[in-house]
Inverse folding.
């Protein structure tokens, strides 16, 4: 099930219940003169809807934002992080708004904004195990070892003049005599 589907379903049910309350018992009948009690009852569904929105949508989002901000402010040198763009790396330098992270085997250093960190990973992140598995699998008897494909030779450079065959014909098949 999707993450927010349950919350949205609860919200829809609560809104339907409040709409029924507004249409049935809380609203004064048409043409009826009402006192202060009826005026208060007519604002009750609005107050309940605001309270439901606060406790179901606004408050949890504020808690989540607070946790994310605390996580980002607790970053220190040596932490392994994942950015919102999907880069994984180790924090090398920390300033107020910027971080320098080291990514890849070449240890390329990237400066990113602090808000660009999506999560802090526990310990050293594991590398992809598919390559290890393939290299470590023992080969069965009778099977040839897997080989990598050979690299292709670079394409020959083309000169501005067309190459000629030893018999005097152009490579493209057109004789110089035919052109006249």
């Amino acid at each position: 099930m999707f993450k927010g589907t349950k919350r949205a379903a609860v919200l829809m049910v609560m809104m339907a219940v409040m709409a029924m309350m507004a249409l049935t018992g809380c609203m004064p009948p048409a043409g009826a003169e009402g006192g202060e009690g009826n005026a208060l009852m007519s604002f009750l569904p609005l107050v309940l809807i605001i309270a439901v929105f606060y406790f179901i949508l606004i408050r949890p989002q504020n808690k989540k934002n607070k946790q994310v901000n605390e996580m980002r402010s607790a970053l220190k040198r040596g932490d392994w992080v994942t950015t919102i763009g999907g880069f994984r790396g180790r924090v090398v330098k920390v300033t107020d708004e910027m971080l320098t992270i080291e990514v890849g085997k070449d240890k390329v250093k990237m400066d990113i904004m602090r808000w660009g960190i999506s999560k802090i990973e526990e310990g050293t992140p594991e590398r992809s195990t598919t390559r290890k598995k393939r290299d470590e699998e023992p080969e069965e008897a009778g099977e040839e070892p897997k080989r990598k494909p050979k690299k292709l030779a670079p394409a020959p450079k083309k000169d501005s003049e067309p190459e000629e065959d030893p018999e005097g014909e152009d490579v493209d098949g057109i004789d110089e005599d035919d052109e006249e």
About this structure: The first helix runs from residue 5 to 26. The radius of gyration is 35 Å.
